[in-house]
Amino acid sequence: MDLNPVDTRRRPGYDYRHHIQIDDGRNMDLHRRMQGRARCQFDFQFQTNFILKPNDAGAGETTLCSEAFVDVPFDGENEFQFLLCSRHRLREYWMPEAQIQELVSEVLDLCRSKMSSTADRDPRVVPVTVTIDVCTVQQDGEELDAAVDRAITIENLLPVLFFDIDRVLKEISFDARGIPCTLATFVWVDMERFRLEDVELGLGLMRSCPICDRAPTLGAQLSTIVCGHTFHSHCIVGSLLNKKNSCPVCNRLGHGGRRQFHEFAGGEERRRDPRVYRRDAFVEDDSDGSLTTGLDVSPMQVTSAGIAPLHAKARTQISRRKWCAIVAGAVAVGICHGEGHSEAAMRLRVLVSATVTADAR
After folding, report:
1. pTM of the prediction?
2. Where is the RING-type domain (predicted)?
3. pLDDT tens figures, 256-299
4. Is the dihedral of CA 155, 159, 160, 163 positive or negative?
5. Which residues share a beta bridge with 310?
6. SS3 (DSSP) at 285
7. With contact defined as beta carbons under 8 Å apart, do 290 and 318 qualify?
8. CB-based contacts of 7: which residues, under 8 Å, 6+ apart?
9. 40: CB partners within 8 A, 6+ apart
10. How far apart, in whole angstroms, are the C-alpha atoms of residue 357 and residue 339?
11. 302 Cβ contact partners less than 8 Å away, ≥ 6 residues apart
């Protein structure tokens, strides 16, 4: 029995196409992007078109919107982390896992072929463009308006900035109780997201989204937050990005920290809590390139309120590389084992907690 079966199912009402090419015409800052001693470095750009396909072939396809994002460059060595960010974004499109793996394999084969053909040439950056069509297909007996209502578009996805691993790493932050205190941490660790394959199940969770007032549809992504209220995932994240730090229904705080969720979107206002591990409070140590936390929490002592006290001594040093490894490792292992969002989030929480505790000793 396969403990981690690949999802080969087709999505009723959805279709996916992709095209991969070497795009020598793309403008890039080659000197800035070229790193290390690799003979080739591949610079990836993904361009996604969200398309509506009516069942009337004569009507033609309509492009509803498009988005573009980039992934971490690949130097031909670390295949374990190959296209990590992109794989997570493709899952947001509800693309079957088998098709994601097929796309990743094709891109990797192209990179290998290019490396072998340029082995004797000067080092160079190779721009690779991956074009993806996410098609919402009108079904027999379905009104066109109903197909438009369930169409996968930018508007009903999490903002693509949440899949920028460099940006997310800067925002990974927990308070002294291990509770997420930034929106990025909340989304990746505490906010469970799932796609509806059964509309009746969605209606059991919410008759309509309290934010947009729309009923659940096939393929909609829902989230139930800590207070028990359910929303469209993109609706609740959009609400939190707009400086609303609590549930729109009951006003319960969405997380345990006091830092505003909207800081992730670049908001200027900041609320400081001295009991918080702050990624932006980490300072560079000139001696070894490590990141040092100015505040440390002893894992051995807990106050009567159940919150570990602060200690100014025993400054914790966590290397930048280690922080990258924590997040990338958690995500990569989850991908390899076919984990869902909740399992990957739990793996990330455990790895961060273990690393902070180990480095504090």
Report:
1. 0.66
2. 209-251
3. 444 444 444 443 333 333 333 233 333 333 334 333 333 233 33
4. negative
5. 297
6. coil
7. yes
8. 96, 97, 98, 338
9. 75, 76, 111, 114, 115, 118, 123, 124, 125, 126
10. 25
11. 308, 309
